[in-house]
Amino acid sequence: MCERLQRSIGNRTGQALAYDGIGQTLRALGRLTEAIDFHATAARILRDQNQPWGLANALVHLADVCTAVDQSEHARQHRAEALTLLDDFTDPPAAALRRRLQELVTG
Q1: What is the mean pLDDT of residues 13-40?
Q2: Could you give the CA distance from residue 65 to residue 102 in angstroms, rounded to a whole number?
Q3: Integer Cα distance of 49 and 102 in angstroms
Q4: I need a labelling partner for 29 at 20 to 30 A (CA). Which of 21, 62, 90, 102 fits?
């Protein structure tokens, strides 16, 4: 519903964030393959819209699902890209996310 509303008003960023939220819900329901599709779609739209903060978060969510389905190399790539995107953000939430990702990427 939210995704359709965002699409109807032409808000591509809002549509992508809705897709990312749907992906998180699907992951919680154990529907991992579907979750990957929604997170990947969100990431593609956010990349096209030049939305680095939203893209970084969508990539983190995508990486988490990839880890859950034993796609560790894909997860590592998504986390590395998210880390690069977070370089421009200095606020506390970004710093916390950066630390979490660095721990996951470097092991």
Answers
A1: 96
A2: 18
A3: 26
A4: 102
70 SS3 class: coil
Please report where in the chains the tokens 């990431």 appear, as a residue.
Answer: 43
Phi, psi of 70 (to 5 degrees): 60, 40
Q: Nearest 5°: CA angle at 106, between 105 and 107?
A: 95
Q: Which two tokens stand for residue 31?
A: 């529907």
Question: How far apart (Å, rounded) are the C-alpha atoms in residues 62 and 74?
Answer: 9
Give dist(CA 97, CA 74) in Å, integer.
19
| Residue that is written with structure tokens 């008003």 in the block | 9
Q: Which amino acid is at 42?
A: A
Tell me the per-residue pLDDT of 69-105, one tens digit each, with 9 for 90 and over.
999 999 999 999 999 999 989 999 999 999 999 998 8
